[in-house]
Amino acid sequence: MIVTVTLNAALDVTYRVDRLCAGKTHRVRDVHSRPGGKGVNVADVLRQLGEPVTTTGFAGPRLLAELPHFVPIAAESRHTIAVVDAEAVTMLNEPGPPISAAEWAALEAEFDRLAATASVVVLSGSLPGLPADAYARLIRRSPAPVILDAEGEPLRAGIAAGPALIKPNIDELAGLLGRTPTLPHDCHALNVPTAVTLGPDGAVLSTSDGTWSARPPRPVRGNPTGAGDAFTAALAIGLARNRPWPETLADAVALSAAAVAAPIAGAFDAPTYREFTDAVTVEEN
Amino acid sequence: MIVTVTLNAALDVTYRVDRLCAGKTHRVRDVHSRPGGKGVNVADVLRQLGEPVTTTGFAGPRLLAELPHFVPIAAESRHTIAVVDAEAVTMLNEPGPPISAAEWAALEAEFDRLAATASVVVLSGSLPGLPADAYARLIRRSPAPVILDAEGEPLRAGIAAGPALIKPNIDELAGLLGRTPTLPHDCHALNVPTAVTLGPDGAVLSTSDGTWSARPPRPVRGNPTGAGDAFTAALAIGLARNRPWPETLADAVALSAAAVAAPIAGAFDAPTYREFTDAVTVEEN
C-alpha cells in the first residue's frame, strides 16, 4: 500500500474564459472544480494504474465533503484558480489555512496508523500554516521509506531527516542551492537520492548506486500541470517493488509525458504511456 | 421600507496579487470575501444612509450562511473574483446557478410578502438560470413602484412590464438600442422614465415631466465598482419620498461619486458625499 500525504490540499477550480486580459471583466464560460494538491494527484495516477493507495492530509469544512477521510481542520482549505484561455493557463493560488496544535496531533496519529502498513510514503506539495520542519517530523516518524516532493525550507529541513528520495524540478533544485545547478554533480552533494525533473528534457536520477539520465523519445504537447505528480507516482511504485533505479526512472519519464498528454492533473493518457514505456532512453552518467 | 431583489447574488472574492500576468502562476497575498450582487450593494448603501431596507433573492448553500433571509436554492450561488494588483482590477464572473420552478415559486411568494409593504422595489443585476422575463413577471406582481437595473433581454422584457424607472449605463443603453445612443432623444423613445449614467460625466434623467442632465463638480479617483448601485440607492430614496426629479438626480450623482471614493462596492465616502451634495450642477434640457 502506497500512502500519499497532502498537507495543503486545495479545491482546484478551473475557469474557461475567451481571453484573459488584465483590467477587464470576463464572463467565465465554464467552471470545473475538483479536490487537488500534489499528493491527491499522485494518488489519482496510482489509482488509474490499479495500484492500492491511501491518502491523507488536512481538509477544511468544504473540502472535507470531497475528501471525507482527511483530517478535518477548522479553517477552510485554500482554493486554486486556473484561468484557461486559448493561449495559456494563469494560476491564482490562495495561501494555505492555519493549522492548530491539536489538528497537527490528529494528523500525526493518522500518519502513524497509515505509515505502519505502508510500502512507501509520498509527502507532496506546499505547507499550510505549519513550521517548515513539518515534513522532517513526518519523515522521522515513518517506518516506511519516504519520497519528498517539496521546495524551499520544507525541502531543506526534510533532507536532513533522511528521506528515501527527493524529487525537485530543476527550478526547485536551483532554489535550494541558491544558484543554477550543475547536473549531476550537485545531486551528489545533497547526499540523498535525488530525481531532478527537467520538463520536456526528461530527468536525472542520482543515488549512491549510480547516476542516470532519461529522455522521452519525442516532445509531448499538452498540460504540464500534474506531470511532476505522475513522475512521483512512478517513483513510488518503483520504490515499493524494489525495481532497479534505471527502470524506475524510465517509467517515471514515460508516465510524466503521458500526464502532459492528458488534459487534467492527476490523469495520464494511456496510449502515450504505452508508446513511451519502451521508448524512453536511459544513459548511465 | 425599500426592498432590493438580487436574483443572481454572489460571493464576491477579492484576490490581491503582486502583478497579474497571463500564463504565469501567482501567489495570492490576501483573500477577502463578502456577499455581493447589485441589489446587495444597493441595500448596503441604503443602510449606511440609515434608510430602512429589506433584501431578498436566491442564495445557494454556502452563500445562505451569509444571507440567511434569502430564498434557498439547491445549486451554489456564483462567485465573482476581483484580481487586484497595483495597476488594475481584473474581474472573473462565474455564470449563475440553475433555478427550479419550485425555487422560483418560493421567490415569488417572498417577493409578494415584501412588496406588499414596500415604498419602492429595486430589481438589480443579471439573472441566474431563469427566463429573460423574470424581472417582467416581478414588475407585474409588484404593488409598489419598481426601479429596474438590468441589461439586454431582461431589461427589454422588463420595460414592457412598466417599471417606474430604469437605470441603464450608457453601454447598456447602447446594447438595448443596438447603436450609439443620442441623448436625451433616445430616452424619450423608450417611453419609460430612464436615468442613464455616464461615468465621470454624471447622468441624464428623462421622464414625462422633463429631462435633466447632472454633472459632478470634479472628477473622483477610486473604484467605480458599485458606483451604479449607489446611484440606484439614491433613486430609490427619491422615489420613496416623492422628491422632485432634478433633486433626486443630483443626489444620485453625488452619492455615486462618493461611492467611487470608497474602496469597496456597497460603501460610499461620507465627506465626498457631503461635499458633492450641493455642488452637483443640474440643467434642464
Please give a structural write-up.
Chain A has 285 residues and is α/β, with parallel strands linked by helices. Chain A has a single domain, classed as UDP-N-acetylmuramoyl-L-alanine:D-glutamate ligase, CATH 3.40.1190.20. Chain A has ten helices and 15 strands. A six-stranded parallel beta sheet of chain A has the order 6-5-1-9-10-11, sandwiched between helices. A four-stranded mixed beta sheet of chain A has the order 4-2-7-8. In chain A, helix 1 packs across helix 8, helix 4 runs parallel beside helix 5 and helix 9 packs antiparallel against helix 10. The longest helix of chain A is centred in the C-terminal third of the chain and has 16 residues. The first copy, chain A, starts with a strand and ends with a strand. The relative contact order of chain A is 0.13. The model of chain A has no long low-confidence stretch (mean pLDDT 95). Chains A and B meet through strand 3 and strand 8 of A and strand 3 and strand 8 of B. Strand 8 of chain A pairs parallel with strand 3 of chain B.
Output the keywords:
homodimer, 285 residues, alpha/beta, UDP-N-acetylmuramoyl-L-alanine:D-glutamate ligase, six-stranded parallel sheet, four-stranded mixed sheet, 10 helices, globular, Carboh/pur_kinase_PfkB_CS (chains A, B)
Topology:
The structure is a homodimer of 285-residue chains.
Chain A (H helix, E strand, L loop, with lengths): L1 E5 L3 E7 L8 E3 L2 E7 L1 H11 L4 E7 L1 H4 L6 E2 L5 E7 L4 E5 L7 H15 L4 E5 L9 H8 L4 E4 L2 H9 L4 E2 L3 H8 L7 H6 L3 E4 L5 E5 L2 E6 L11 H14 L4 H16 L9 H8 L3 E4 L1
Parallel strand pairs in A: 1-5, 1-9, 2-7, 5-6, 9-10, 10-11
Antiparallel strand pairs in A: 2-4, 7-8, 12-13, 13-14, 14-15
